[in-house]
Amino acid sequence: MTAGRQEEQPEFGDLMVKCGAGTPQWIYTFLLFGFSALLMVLAVPEVMKGNRIAWFAIGCSCVLGCLGWIALLLARVKTEFYRYGVIVKRGCNVLRLMHYAKCERFSFVATRDYWKGQYVYTIVELRLESATHASIRWFGRHKETRDLTVAISGRHYEVVDQFDAMKHVVTEQIVQRWNESIDSGQSIIWKHLELTPRGITPLREFGNGLCVPYEQIDVCPARAGLLEFRPKGRRFSNCANGISKPRAVARTAEPNFWVFLRLLQQMSGKELGLDC
């Protein structure tokens, strides 16, 4: 990731989705400036009369004005997701940028909100982090457009909207690197699981060194926001106390969750029935 103060941008391909400050952000900005100006107008005449409380009101007005200025700067920040990278800008100035090829950890959560059975908007929270721990994060509300198709690495995905397509693009970039490492005989550690060319090995108390082939892994929802990974017909056991528990449980919000799910789908050679 790099930063700059000029208009120059790398060639990141087609623009997929552009995110700016939503309406609430601008409302908060104008409210802060409005209250600041109102306090100042009401307090100045009282200060001339020697009212000490008026000085406190002026202090509050200055604080609100500073907060309003910060909110204004944040409201002008836009995040643009392209085919091969993401750029964060304020006005015409590039603040941060990152190639998806340099992204090492990717987390993505989309929560759809409904009112009386009707779709209203989607709350999206995502984070991209490089090997140097430089990161780009975006959180906000987004109105989806339905029934889109995107082609990634020769594979066509039915996606919900542009954010969904961007998730697939970033996921495929990281999965490709994971596949190259595994094909070369290396292992990938994700959470408490070791991914090897032969299968998945639970680490530490989560198993006794048993390597489960990818095609024998079942995936099932544990509860909202959680998925459980286990051998077919069995559970990963906690061998320390002999109690059988579903230990290979992952939150969908965890870094590289979608990467792991996509890799498992490729290695097992079957559709998991999940949006990965």
Q: Could you give a short description of this structure?
A:
The chain has 276 residues and is α+β, with helices and mostly antiparallel strands.
Task: Furnish the topology, listing elements before pairings.
Elements (H helix, E strand, L loop, with lengths): L14 E5 L3 H26 L3 H24 L1 E6 L2 E6 L2 E7 L3 E13 L2 E13 L4 E8 L5 E5 L2 E5 L2 H22 L4 E3 L2 E3 L4 E3 L14 E7 L2 E6 L5 E2 L4 E2 L4 E3 L5 H12 L8
Antiparallel strand pairs: 1-2, 2-3, 3-4, 5-6, 6-7, 8-9, 10-11, 11-12, 13-14, 14-17, 15-16
Describe the overall structure.
By secondary structure, this protein is an alpha+beta fold. The chain folds into 3 domains: 22-75; 96-169, no CATH class; 187-268. Helix content is 30%, strand content 35%. It has helices at residues 23-48, 52-75, 162-183, 257-268, and strands spanning 15-19, 77-82, 85-90, 93-99, 103-115, 118-130, 135-142, 148-152, 155-159, 188-190, 193-195, 200-202, 217-223, 226-231, 237-238, 243-244, 249-251. It has a 4-stranded antiparallel beta sheet. Strands 5-6-7 form a 3-stranded antiparallel beta sheet. It has a 3-stranded antiparallel beta sheet with strand order 10-11-12. Strand 15 and strand 16 (243-244) form a beta hairpin. Helix 3 (162-183) crosses helix 4.
Relevant terms:
single chain; 3-stranded antiparallel beta sheet; about 280 residues; disordered N terminus; alpha+beta; elongated; 4-stranded antiparallel beta sheet
- Which sheet architecture does the biggest sheet show? 4 strands, antiparallel
Strand coverage percent: 35-45%
Q: Secondary-structure element sequence? A: EHHEEEEEEEEHEEEEEEEEH
Shape: elongated
Q: What's the alpha carbon Rg, rounded to whole Å?
A: 25 Å
**N- to C-terminal separation?**
26 Å
Specify the structural class. Answer: alpha+beta
Low-confidence runs: 1-8, 235-246
| Overall number of domains | 3
